[in-house]
Specification:
Low-confidence stretches of chain A: none
Number of strands of chain A: 34
Strand content of chain C: 15-25%
Low-confidence stretches of chain C: none
Oligomer: heterotrimer
Strand order of the largest sheet of chain A: 10-7-6-18-29
Radius of gyration of chain A: 33 Å
Chains: A alpha/beta, B alpha/beta, C alpha/beta
Number of helices of chain C: 4
Largest sheet of chain C: 4 strands, parallel
Distance between the termini of chain C: 24 Å
Mean pLDDT of chain C: 92
Helix content of chain A: 25-40%
Number of helices of chain A: 18
Strand order of the largest sheet of chain C: 2-1-3-4
Structural class of chain A: alpha/beta
Chain lengths: ~675, ~325, ~140
């Protein structure tokens, strides 16, 4: 079809009686026939049906139509349907324009005459726009068959294993020296009381050994560029100062470290101690030692003892290397899964709960380390040990507090952290298990036992003699300054009996909630992610797209998207892996056709569009204007989503979104603005 | 005070460097109360440069209006620097142009002039009539000495200076490579009293005012041409595809044109007032721009043309932006 | 023949929220006045305030922009820019002497069919009170 003059076909649908009983369709047809460019105007009962669509296809083939207007229901309903119709008839699908004369006309206006008049105007506006529509190409880009997983907690591990098992390459980047995340710090998990480390460590080992997985621990992603299917990442592998290949994990260095047992261990929530050269925990994967450059005397002060570093001296494999440097690695991948996890709420932000300075007012995570067999007290809930780690006492009365840092506007966290009711019930059970005679009370606002086996577990815990008292404490404090008196007072009101009380006990466990990671800003800047109001990463749609982000090709898994327990995390991780696999397995991805483009001869390179674009899809590039080098904007069509914010920001109108250009909107205004 | 000889010496020095290709300053006009812009190529030309209250023009406009001619085959474009003399208000235009990436900072040499005010031609002509010979004007304390036909007349500054000078908060250039005089104290404050006064009118009165003014408009586009912030390669006002405003000079198209320009200048107008100065039919163009300047400041705490690192107003947002009228 | 003046409103609705909200009003058969004519854009951030000026020039007695609630924009930030632009444009048109009741904006989400109806009713009422837009309307000459 070489004739570029618009030959428009207009099809007005009756939609049964939905439109036909209100809008005088024949009158609309008569009017439409008078409009410039309209060659054919037909009416039909159901345009979306096969015969309806065939009307369009036949006219395209026989009459040489090159623009199609369907006046019917909302384009949000049938635009894809009619685009297919055009495609099947050999016409570019973007030569379609729809006029909404049902949801926005016949269904909402009682005055039939007015509804008909409006329908005529809406169709006329569609005709005006159709005359300036252009053919658009639906482009596809290749997808590199690999995935970059950021974070190697249970979410990252699960996603990585699924994709690797499917036969594709996975890069896993973990910030700490070992994989495992928070789950490796837990003792037993609710409601099954599975030992966390027992169910996690096989997966940790798999991740390290899988032929398709390249694991980079003690590493961080520094820069990500590119777009779906074609990402490039720069990863910094930090120096461990231990030769990875030589280290056998024997631990003799740590035994001999001059600072052994002197540095608070992050893994043990600062209750346990480590040395400057350390393994975060015994089952760490990879089982390679790391030297903390800020605490190590040799690295921070240049000198360790009179005879030099004891670790280097002791290591029989010669693995200690103080000259080691960070290594920067660049990788290409097709998809990215962000699984960076959470931080627990910092209990010092609720000073009225007395966490700071009292070692028998502890957080839920500190509790996990206390009762963990591999923890600093060997699994006994011993409190008040001296500096050497000796002595201490077992508590006789334990209080658990719900909702610390969650559902609390005063600290800025209005949301519920979802896991605390159950983990506190589990922890109450563990105390009952270890201290059969202890008095255990849980102070709650609500008990949310929503999951599989949760309610049954909660019942069981209460049958074990754990008291549940409904009340939110106002204050928790040490009763007396005497160091021998461990009593802590929980000031609370039992709201069900309206009884205020000063509950005395010798161990308080604060049910701290889950918060976004402290360094969440860095990750957001790397990937242009968004945050929900609660600070966790924003999913593309809360109901239907919980693992996608607004950036195609980047997926979310685990608590970084919102607080959740281990089964939900694993389910979401598998979902993210599946979403990534769709892209990887198909090998190609379609990019939006109605994207923006720049008429560079009109562009003055001011960069307004670059700053406005929510997806970072525009950049300034050099252009040679008759010998002079100037800067103009250029749109990356794979990143552009066609929102058009750039066009409204451009003072020259040099950048326009296809199908919604100024020259396609102004004719519509010209028609619809006229008072009839 | 600016020593004329020192000013010329500096200009000579700048032009003698082989990294500067042009210097833009002011020279004596051919008639009346306004100096003319002058583009110098060579250090020998500096004697024509002047600085006095007739130097009304905002020379920053030339930095972007300079045409880039096609480069002949085989030769390289001349990318040497351009030097420009700017008063306080003019320097804000330079800053705003830098914010908008119109050129690189190291491609322009800014010669800053601390300014004590320039003449409003219309006020001078009302006092002394139109003059066919160029008029020499000099400062004498808080008076100006106007030399017309050999006679010297003294006038109070507040009666003859431009309105913008009487409320000027930035007499000293906010950006410069060299300052050509001592800094002067800030003489004015700006409470936007003129905007508040106009606001008292009812919508009907306001429209009557503009209808009268815009009926005069001949769409010469002088306001656009002189504005330092109007430098688009393709201007929507005159674009034909799509056509936003028709070429006819009826009230509808004229109003649309002026609204268009005021809209494009919101958050960018640095209030040099050149548009109003050059309008051949005396339309008070600044009345529209001043309202936007005040509202931009009040609503978004933003003033263009002061901070090179600032983001353009409409390229950023604050999640707490006002939304009083939104349903 | 003196008929009551019926204003003509041109509305720009964003595809993901407001246009969907308008569709919902339709599906729920909520009735509102036919004075409003809708132009679909992908995002309220697409709306150049000069569209509003153009609409008034073409003869519209009122204009409306409607988008997703701040924070919910399908394209993340478009409606924040739209908000800033609208607030400034309203001031500009006020300065010209355009009745403020002619220039409107609203946040309507995809589930707010009822709110959409209310928004329309209010917009039409305001435009009606402002009267026919004559100020800088293009005059069509019938030769």
């Amino acid at each position: 079809m070489n004739d570029s003059r618009p030959k428009i076909g207009v099809y007005v649908c009756h939609c049964g009686i939905n439109i036909g009983s209100v809008v005088d369709v024949p009158a609309v047809i008569e009017y439409v026939k008078t409009l410039p460019g309209v060659e054919i105007a037909r009416e039909y009962t159901y345009m979306c049906s096969d015969p309806g669509q065939n009307l369009v296809k036949d006219d395209i083939r026989n009459e040489g139509l090159n623009r199609v207007i369907v006046a019917s229901c909302s384009p949000r309903m049938h635009e894809p349907t009619f685009r297919k119709t055009l495609k099947e008839a050999g016409l570019n699908p973007y030569f379609l324009e729809m006029a909404n004369i049902r949801e926005q006309d016949s269904w909402v206006h009682e005055d039939h005459a007015a509804a008909t008049k409006k329908a005529k105007q809406l169709v006329e506006a569609a005709v005006a726009k159709a005359s300036v529509l252009e053919a658009l190409e639906e482009k596809e880009v290749d997808v590199i068959p690999s995935c970059l997983v950021i974070g190697a907690g249970i979410a990252g591990i699960q996603s990585a294993l699924d994709i690797a098992d499917a036969g594709y390459k996975v890069y896993v980047v973990e910030k700490t020296p070992s994989v495992g995340g928070h789950m490796s710090q837990l003792d037993k998990t609710f409601p099954t009381l599975d030992c966390s480390a027992c169910i996690l460590t096989p997966k940790m080992v798999d991740v390290a050994n899988h032929p398709n997985i390249e694991l980079m621990t003690y590493s961080q992603v520094e820069e990500v560029t590119g777009f779906v299917g074609n990402f490039k990442a720069k990863i910094r592998k930090r120096a461990r100062y231990v030769d990875f290949d030589k280290c056998t994990g024997c631990g003799i260095c740590a035994e001999n470290c001059r600072l052994a047992g002197k540095i608070p261990s992050e893994f043990d929530e600062n209750i346990g101690k480590r040395g400057a050269v350390y393994l975060p925990f015994p089952q760490a994967v990879p089982a390679k030692y790391t030297i903390d450059p800020e605490r190590c005397l040799q690295l921070s002060k240049g000198k360790c003892g009179k005879e030099g570093p004891a670790c280097a001296e002791a290591c029989t494999a010669g693995a200690i290397n103080f000259e080691q440097e960070d290594e920067i690695v660049e990788i290409d991948c097709g998809t990215i899964i962000v699984a960076t996890g959470y931080d627990v709420f910092d209990a010092s932000r609720k000073p009225e709960y007395g966490w700071t300075g009292n070692d028998n007012i502890i957080t839920g995570l500190e509790f996990e380390r206390l009762v963990s067999a591999s923890g600093p007290t060997g699994g006994k809930p011993l409190l008040g040990r001296d500096k050497k780690g000796e002595g201490g006492y077992l508590p006789k009365k334990v209080a658990f507090i719900h909702c610390v840092g969650s559902r609390d506007e005063s600290v800025g966290n209005e949301y519920c952290s979802r896991v605390c009711c159950m983990y506190l019930a589990k922890q109450a059970h563990l105390i009952r298990d270890k201290l059969p005679e202890a008095e255990i009370t849980v102070f709650y606002m609500d008990v949310r036992a929503f999951g599989k086996g949760f309610e049954e577990f909660y019942d069981r815990v209460r049958r074990e003699g754990v008291q549940y008292v409904r009340g939110n404490p106002s204050e928790i404090y040490k009763k007396s300054p005497d160091p021998e008196d461990h009593t802590v007072v929980v000031k609370v009101e039992d709201t069900l009996t309206a009884t205020p009380m000063d509950y005395e006990c010798d161990l308080v466990v604060l049910g701290v909630g889950l918060e976004p990671r402290k360094d969440v800003r860095e990750i957001i800047d790397l990937f242009k992610l968004s945050q929900s109001t609660d600070g966790f990463f924003l999913e593309a749609h809360p109901k239907l797209r919980p693992v996608d982000t607004a950036s195609d090709g980047i997926f979310l898994a685990g608590c970084c998207q919102g607080p959740k327990d281990i089964p939900d995390t694993v389910a979401q991780a598998k979902g993210a892996a599946s979403s990534a696999l769709i892209l990887i397995a198909s090998g190609r991805v379609k990019v939006e056709a109605q994207v923006s483009f720049v008429t560079s001869s009109e562009c003055r390179g001011c960069g307004f569009c670059v700053e406005v674009c929510p997806f970072g899809a525009i950049e300034l590039v050099d252009e040679n204007r008759m010998g002079n080098i100037v800067q103009v904007a250029l749109v990356n069509e794979a990143l552009c989503k066609g929102c058009g914010s750039c066009a409204a920001a451009c003072l020259s109108g040099a950048i326009q979104p296809r199908s919604f250009k100024d020259e396609q909107i102004l004719p519509q205004i010209a028609v619809l603005g006229v008072r009839t | 005070m600016v020593d004329q000889n020192k000013m010329r010496d500096k200009a000579r020095e700048v032009l003698e460097g082989d990294d500067v290709r042009r210097l833009i300053g002011w020279k004596r006009g051919t008639y009346g109360f306004e100096a003319a812009p002058s583009v110098l190529k060579d250090a020998s030309e500096v004697d024509r440069l002047i600085w006095d209250p007739t130097c009304v023009g905002n020379l920053a406009g030339f930095l972007t209006l300079e045409e880039k001619r096609p480069v002949p085959r085989g030769s390289e474009p001349d990318t040497r620097k351009v030097a420009v003399m700017v008063k306080g208000c003019d320097s804000r235009a330079v800053v705003q142009q830098l914010v908008e990436k119109a050129y690189d900072r190291d491609k322009v040499v800014v010669l800053g002039i601390p300014c004590t005010g320039v003449i409003d031609r219309r006020k001078a002509e009302a006092m002394f009539g139109e003059q066919s010979e160029p008029v020499e004007v000099s400062e004498k304390g808080d008076k100006l000495v106007v030399n017309i036909g050999g006679e010297s007349k003294e006038v109070d500054k507040k009666d003859i200076l431009a309105d913008k000078c009487l409320r000027c908060r930035f007499p000293n250039p906010v950006v410069s490579d060299f300052m050509l005089g001592e800094e002067v104290p800030v003489a004015g404050t700006d409470e936007f009293a003129d905007v508040a006064e106009f606001e008292k009118m009812t919508p009907e009165e306001k429209w009557k005012f503009w209808e009268e003014q815009y009926s005069k408009c001949i769409r010469c586009y002088s306001c656009r041409n002189v504005c330092p912030m109007c430098y688009c390669v393709e201007c929507v006002a005159t674009k034909l595809r799509p056509q936003w405003t028709r070429r006819s000079t009826d009230i509808s198209e004229n109003t649309a044109y002026h609204i268009q320009r005021a809209w494009h200048l919101s958050g960018r107008c640095i209030e040099c007032g050149e548009c109003q100065r050059v309008c051949p039919v005396d339309i008070p163009i600044m009345t529209l721009n001043r309202r936007m300047t005040r509202d931009v400041k009040e609503m978004f705490d933003y003033e263009p043309g002061l901070d090179v690192e600032a983001e353009p107003l409409l390229s950023c947002f604050n999640p707490q932006d006002p939304e009083d009228y939104i349903m | 023949m003196s008929e009551e003046f019926e204003p003509n409103i041109v509305a720009f609705l964003c595809n993901w929220c407001s246009y969907a909200g308008a569709d919902l009003a339709g599906t729920s058969r909520m009735h509102y006045l036919p004075n409003i004519k809708i132009i679909r854009v992908m995002c309220s951030g697409r709306v150049n305030p000069l569209f509003l000026v153009n609409a008034l020039q073409q003869g519209a007695d009122g204009v409306l922009i409607s988008g997703c609630h701040p924070g919910d924009c399908h394209y993340l930030e478009g409606n924040f820019f739209a908000r800033r632009r609208f607030m400034l444009a309203k001031k500009l048109l006020e300065q010209i002497g355009v009745d403020p009741g002619r220039v409107n904006m609203s946040w309507v989400s995809a589930s707010e069919g009822a709110k959409f109806k209310d928004v329309i009713d209010e917009t039409v009422a305001k435009a009606k009170a402002a009267g026919p837009m004559e100020q800088f309307r293009r005059r069509q000459i019938n030769w």
